[in-house]
Design brief:
about 675 residues; alpha+beta; Transferase(Phosphotransferase), domain 1; Helix Hairpins; 6-stranded antiparallel sheet; 3-stranded antiparallel sheet; 13 strands; about 10% strand; binds adenosine-5'-triphosphate
Length: about 675
């Protein structure tokens, strides 16, 4: 049997490798369109390749199956010259292969919804002619693994992800007809004038290609290397499992409540308090008071916050509370934002409460790098036993990343005339991979408020110098894997040379040098480590790209969810006293048939067809209101409709409006269709 591999033939082949749903009639992909545009399609027989003249357009039935090919009067000859790849300089067209009829063909215009339907139906292959076992994996026609790009004549053959390139097609037709190519605006290019004025922006918006191609997916970098250009995995359509799990975990942590908790039910305007620090053993070294930390939801804005309570604090001067004001104005990505402070007696004592941003599933650097020795704990805050203390090597890259983020926070703090004063492993939150935030800032300003300074501008020069020393100690302790190594810094610095560069060692040494020896400032630190900051920035940019790419996979999720919700609200709805007239006739009937077409498709043998590309492709075309036509067949095979996705979309919208008009308690807002 001949084995066609190109043009229509590859469509047939795809039907066998990934059979189409019963009754599916994708007229846009009919073989004749390919022939009309590109003048030839490729056939292969006994290992040889042949060109099929464009005049075949008038005889589509001649190549609908392999068996019909054998009866064709213009049968291909084994002596025909072999297929030669398209030359780029001819715009993908070989003049010798173009018939005069094709050359004079009118430019292609997409079908509108009311255009007459073409009867280029592709006869369905029967089970006796083809069996799936005979067929290798579908490869789009014209796919050249060396180039890794689709040839223009195959743009629409791959279904999802390939995309019909109207620009290429138009150019090809123009060059075929020998006419000069008009200037075609590419609406996706940046405005060459570089202007950001509203007028320029809106003028360009009118140039978007119609119909909109919102049903096509285009993968963004970074790419997986081991897939061919036309291949997609189901993961490409959704957010990655790891990322989903991570966000799910954060979500659960944010929503967590303790049903039988002994913690206060309310504190000021906060409710649902959950303790984050479950240890009864409290350390008052840093603030001079034992501290407790809770997650709580504000009834004012519904957001979740972290509340830090200083137990037993007695406010003696109202101005002390005001010392937090300048901290509220600081907005830096490497800090935990502080929102408010108030006193309370709700715990039975006099407590001071600081309201801060809540970062779910975060841990402190102390918990992360010194799990046992620094905390003297056997359990982490989730009740899991901590590993035996085993200091792990921390890469130099991580240390520079910490240094860069803390330096960025210190830059803002010092520029605001303040000092952090708490650069301690237990007061730095790790909120993501190598992503840290300086926590508990401003607390010491309130707690150590000096009443004699009221009305005077307090100077934090000494504290700022001390911040740099604390930063040096922190990096040294993490690098050495020991929380108390800063007590003997010289020995520890010598030890660092074995694992880290001299540059890091010198930097720590400079930070640790006593303030009186030389004038140190955050600006000097930043200029000295600028080279390392650039590396950190580059890593962050890569991480940002990865997240953006992950975000792009969810581009269509919301739209698809809305379509599914609407379809399920409309279909199989029982009639009752409130819904007398609800029946699935008229428009609703073909919505039902469309549902079968999308979800209940079967292959040529009648087996269920589970094809994610088909389902997503159909739903996206539906949402975009594509003018592509499909044939819907009833389950008994008695009724068939040829409709466009646009028609179905309109039917769904109408039915949903009817339904929305009848309901008085819809969860879906009427305004948000
Ligand atoms: N803003 C926040 N968002 C989310 N979790 C936080 C926040 N602040 C602290 N936590 C968590 O609360 C826990 C306790 O934090 P805390 O700052 O009290 O550290 P600690 O090691 O208990 O220090 P101390 O011994 O001084 O109380 C830590 O696990 C930390 O991850």
């Amino acid at each position: 049997m001949d084995t066609p591999i190109g043009g229509i033939a590859s469509e047939i082949r795809r039907t066998m490798a990934s059979p189409r749903p019963k009754g599916r009639e994708n007229l846009k992909n009919t073989p004749c369109r390919n022939i009309g545009i590109f003048g030839f399609c490729k056939y292969e027989k006994d290992g040889c390749a042949y060109n099929h003249d464009a005049s075949m357009k008038t005889k589509p039935q001649s190549h609908s199956t392999a068996s019909s090919e054998s009866t064709n009067t213009s049968r291909f000859n084994v002596d025909s010259p072999s297929f030669t790849p398209l030359q780029p300089q001819t715009n993908g067209l070989r003049p010798s292969a173009i018939s005069p009829r094709s050359a004079n063909a009118a430019p292609f215009t997409p079908k509108s919804s009311n255009s007459p339907l073409v009867s280029h139906a592709r006869p369905k292959p029967t089970a006796t002619e083809w069996t799936p076992q005979e067929v290798a994996e579908f490869v789009p026609q014209g796919f050249d693994p060396n180039q890794g790009l689709l040839q223009p004549d195959t743009q629409n053959a791959t279904g999802l992800g390939s995309g019909f390139d109207a620009y290429t097609l138009h150019s090809a037709l123009q060059s075929m007809a020998g006419t000069p190519q008009p200037q075609i605006n590419n609406p996706y290019l940046q405005d060459p004038s570089g202007g950001l004025s509203g007028a320029t922006y809106y003028q360009n918006s009118g140039a978007f290609t119609q119909p909109l191609q919102y049903h096509l997916y285009s993968p963004l970098a970074p790419h997986r290397d081991n897939l061919l250009a036309y291949q997609r995995t189901s993961h490409d359509f959704f957010i990655s499992e790891d990322l989903r799990r991570e966000f799910q975990r954060r979500n659960e942590a944010s929503l967590q409540v303790l049903p039988n908790s002994t913690v206060l039910p309310h504190l000021d305007h906060f409710h649902s308090l959950v303790p984050l620090d479950t240890l009864s053993q409290k350390n008052s070294n840093i603030f001079g008071y034992p501290t407790w930390i809770y997650k709580a939801v504000s009834s004012k804005d519904g957001k979740t916050y972290a509340l830090r309570r200083l137990e037993g604090y007695r406010l003696t001067n109202e101005h002390a509370i005001r010392a937090l004001q300048p901290w509220k104005r600081i907005d830096n990505g490497s800090m935990v934002t502080v929102h408010d402070v108030f006193t309370t007696r709700a715990f039975g004592d006099s407590s001071l409460i600081f309201v801060m941003d809540y970062h779910p599933c975060s841990s402190t650097l102390a918990e992360h790098h010194f799990p046992q020795s620094a905390q003297g704990r056997n359990m982490d805050r989730f009740g899991n036993p901590v590993r035996a203390y085993n200091p792990q090597y921390v890469s130099e890259q991580t240390l520079w990343a910490y240094m860069a983020q803390l330096a960025s926070a210190l830059k803002i703090i010092h520029a605001g005339g303040l000092a952090a004063q708490v650069i301690h492993p237990s007061k730095i939150l790790l909120t993501g991979k190598n992503r840290i935030r300086l926590n508990a800032c401003g607390i010491l300003d309130v707690v150590k408020f000096d009443a004699s300074q009221v009305g005077m501008q307090r100077s934090f020069k000494l504290e700022q110098q001390e911040d740099l020393v604390q930063l040096g100690r922190l990096i040294l302790c993490i690098a050495a894997g020991n929380a108390s190594v800063y007590l003997a810094p010289h020995k520890a610095l010598d030890g660092l040379s074995r694992a880290y560069t001299g540059r890091l060692r010198d930097c720590i040494s400079w930070l640790l040098s006593p303030p009186q020896e030389q004038t140190k400032s955050i600006d000097i630190l930043l200029s000295e480590i600028s080279g390392n900051i650039i590396t950190v920035l580059d890593n962050q940019l890569h991480a940002f790209d990865t997240f953006e790419s992950a975000l792009a996979t969810s581009l269509e999720d919301g739209r698809i969810a809305r379509i599914l919700l609407k379809m399920n609200l409309i279909l199989e709805r029982p009639e009752n006293e409130h819904n007398h007239s609800w029946s699935e006739t008229g428009e609703r009937y073909y919505i039902k048939m469309f549902r079968d077409y999308v979800f209940h498709a079967v292959d040529a043998q009648g087996r269920a067809l589970v094809d994610l590309s088909h389902i997503l492709g159909c739903l996206n075309r539906l949402d975009a209101g594509s003018n592509e036509t499909i044939q819907l067949t009833s389950r008994d095979g008695e009724t068939a409709f040829i409709v466009t996705f646009k028609d179905i979309k309109r039917a769904i919208e109408n039915s949903f409006s009817d339904l929305n008009g009848n309901t008085n308690s819809s969860g879906l807002s009427k305004g948000r269709k």
